[in-house]
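Good morning,

Attaching, inline, the backbone tokens for the sequence recovery test we're adding to the shared suite. The designed sequence is right after.
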């Protein structure tokens, strides 16, 4: 109800401004209303974009944790060498690599690395020494 009252107020004030003050102040009034609406929309869009970015970061971390859990499960003696579990691990690695590629494309400032990338970087450091 308040929303409709606000809309009615804006329209009535616009008509009042045009009748009393003329066309130029009316156009100025419309411009101000348009700019305020645009700023509100931009603020809402940026806020939503930040929420999506945070959710995506959380999702990337969850996938990485899942992959780590699968690798730890595979190292247990009971499951060591199980081909189904090995296939699941390799699929999860491919999946996380796809997510990392998407992250690099859209979210340059997020840092997510897999154990393979960490191992590769530590091996490169050892070679340099």
């Amino acid at each position: 109800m308040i929303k409709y009252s606000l809309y009615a107020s804006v329209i009535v004030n616009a008509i009042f401004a045009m009748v009393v003050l003329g066309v130029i102040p009316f156009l100025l009034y419309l411009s101000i209303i348009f700019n305020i609406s645009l700023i509100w929309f931009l603020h809402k869009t940026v806020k939503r974009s930040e929420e999506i970015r945070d959710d995506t970061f959380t999702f990337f971390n969850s996938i990485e944790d899942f992959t780590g859990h699968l690798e730890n499960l595979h190292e247990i003696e009971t499951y060591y060498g199980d081909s189904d579990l090995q296939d699941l691990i390799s699929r999860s690695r491919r999946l996380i690599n796809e997510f990392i590629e998407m992250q690099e494309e859209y979210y340059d400032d997020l840092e997510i690395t897999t154990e393979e990338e960490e191992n590769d970087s530590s091996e490169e450091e050892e070679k340099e020494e």
